[in-house]
Amino acid sequence: MVLAAAAAQSRQQLEEGLVKRAEAEVERMMSDATSGNPDAVERKSKRVAEIVKDKAFPIARRRELQDRCTSLLRQAYETSVNLYLDDAVAAGRGADDARMHKLLAKAKDHFTLALRAGASEDFKEAVRRKLELIGLTGPLGTSEKTNRAAAEEAAKPQPPSTASGGVGASATMTP
User: Is the pTM of this model over 0.70?
Assistant: First the structure.
């Protein structure tokens, strides 16, 4: 009888220790997810998976922790995509097309992974809008070529207007 009670207490201590280890790993995952570091989140998620595979781990908590890991991984990928797209906008404004294209490629890779992890329709729409913005983004300021073309256009003589009462029409109107 005493032996059974000691075994039950030992098992409970083992379960508590495993749960604490898994929860501590999930807490560390949270900071990585908010900073947009999906690689670190994925490594920690694999560690949590190993912990919950233990036969002594309580089954009731297993699914909860697995769902939290999936959610944090999705959050990390979404944050990563947003950070890459923001950097791509900055690269586009700085006329660094090579860097912008590299950042867009990384963003698209992480976007795919975010979708696999269950990203929402709102996230998809936000990414689509940011990609449109990036497509419209050009270098800050205007180029010399644009300034020169505008000056040449302004210097061209304007043809007289043929509209009645328009600029260049005679001051007298014929009925």
Answer: no
